[in-house]
Design goal:
The chain has about 400 residues and is α/β, with parallel strands linked by helices. The chain is about 40% helix and about 15% strand. The protein has a single domain (about 10-370), classed as Thiamin diphosphate (ThDP)-binding fold, Pyr/PP domains (Rossmann fold). It has helices at about 25-30, 35-40, 65-90, 105-115, 130-135, 140-145, 180-195, 210-225, 245, 270-285, 315-325, 325-335, 340-365, and strands at about 15, 30, 40-45, 50-55, 60-65, 120-125, 200-205, 230-235, 235-240, 240, 260-265, 290-295, 385, 395-399. A hairpin with a 6-residue loop joins β13 (about 385) and β14 (about 395-399). Keywords: Oxidoreductase, Pyruvate, Thiamine pyrophosphate.
């Protein structure tokens, strides 16, 4: 519910979409004929209150603009379409191996990015496609990586679980459950050591919340007052197991005990933005904080999981109807006359075309050269011999 209602005569003129490019920044921006209206500030109240642990929660009133809301709609729609397309590519066997989709959780990636800069770091687990996109990655880079092609963001060598974009402060997806949390604290240690005044967002799931390395890293981060925000993306199911079957205490924002925490509606992009802004300011002064994002994944844990054996279809459809992050923003846009239903549908059509074009381009990318198997493995200059499986015949001698 808005605290400020704009009048009918402040409605938006017809929107003009930017042309398609390979830059995701261009994908996600939208220009309007009225710069006077699209920068108008309004205040929205978050869907539910924040719940704090050892801290005073931020205000539920979030400032935004119609331009930001339309950008959020487009960003999340692009991510949703990308993940649905990845589902089809996997079923067509163009994507192999593991593939963990993010549809349903888009508000976390988009809201977090709205509160930080590219000088802040982000590191996450294997559900990483949309985080990469939010950090400035391209659709072609995403699809090429998913299909193991040379133009992928990790040169086709990482696949779904190992997206990476260091120049935007994205230190990748990681396949070992919870192993990215000490790495994230290490990134924050470097930021503090270099006195950079930036922070690291370290993302993990509810399934990883019981891993020992999380608590070891948190202990060190608290001792050294590191600028790290530990973000538990609680989608309520770790692989095929409901949180109540795996965690005696599923209040993950309280798990830090001596570390403050905040529970956030992870399906509300404005609530996520407000929480991440608050968290960034907090950790630069006080050290680590835990954010629990109450979110939901529509797909199964991975493409090998139908996602319907341990939860009902009614549960999934109920979340879609009541809490979907894209539909929530759509309703806000329409209720404030920021765009018409037709304009939003046109945006979705443009997004679909961008995704289709990116897939076509990614398919044209060649597979990595076989020699790439030996790069980034051995230290240059030390030399190494590569034998065949029989350990008798030398196949390759590396310099």
């Amino acid at each position: 519910m808005s605290l400020i209602q704009l009048s009918k005569n402040q409605s938006l003129h017809a929107a003009l979409l930017l042309p398609v490019t390979n830059s995701v920044g261009a994908h996600l921006r939208r220009h309007f004929s009225s710069t006077e209206t699209d920068t108008r500030t309004l205040t929205i109240e978050t869907s539910v209150p924040y719940t704090g642990h050892k801290l005073e929660p931020p205000s539920r009133s979030v400032e935004t603009t119609q331009k930001e809301l339309l950008t959020f709609f487009r960003e999340m729609s692009l991510m949703r379409r990308m993940e649905i397309a990845a589902d089809s590519l996997y079923k067509a066997k163009l994507i192999r191996g593991f593939c963990h989709l993010y549809d349903g959780q888009e508000a976390v990636a988009v809201g977090m990015e709205a509160a930080i800069t590219k000088k802040d770091n982000v590191i996450t687990a294997y559900r990483d496609h949309c985080i990469y996109l939010a950090r400035g990655g391209t659709l072609v880079g995403a699809f090429a990586e998913l299909m193991g092609r040379r133009d992928g963001c990790s040169k086709g060598k990482g696949g779904s679980m190992h997206f990476y974009k260091k120049d935007s402060g994205f230190y990748g997806g990681h396949g070992i459950v919870g192993a990215q949390t000490p790495l994230g604290c290490g990134l924050a240690f470097a930021q503090k050591y270099l006195k950079e005044e930036h922070v690291t967002f370290t993302l993990y799931g509810d399934g990883a919340a019981n891993q020992g390395q999380l608590f070891e890293a948190l202990n060190m981060a608290a001792l050294w007052d590191l600028p790290v925000i530990l973000v538990c993306e609680n989608n309520h199911y770790g692989m095929g197991t409901a949180e109540w079957r795996a965690a005696k205490s599923p209040a993950y924002y309280k798990r830090g005990d001596y570390v403050p925490g905040l529970k956030v509606d992870g399906m509300d992009v404005l609530a996520v933005k407000q929480a991440c802004k608050f968290a960034k300011e907090h950790v630069l002064k006080n050290g680590p904080i835990i954010l629990e994002m109450d979110t939901y994944r529509y797909h199964g844990h991975s493409m090998s999981d139908p996602g319907s054996t341990y939860r009902t279809r009614d549960e999934i459809s109920g979340i879609r109807q009541e809490r979907d992050p894209i539909e929530r923003v759509r309703k806000l846009i329409l209720s404030h006359d920021f765009a018409t239903e037709k304009e939003l549908k046109d945006t979705e059509k443009e997004v679909r075309k961008e995704v289709d074009d990116a897939i076509a381009q990614a398919k044209e990318s060649p597979m990595p050269d076989p020699s790439e198997l030996f790069t980034n493995v051995f230290v240059k200059g030390l030399g190494a011999d590569a034998f065949g499986v029989d350990r008798k015949e030398i196949r390759t001698v590396l310099p």
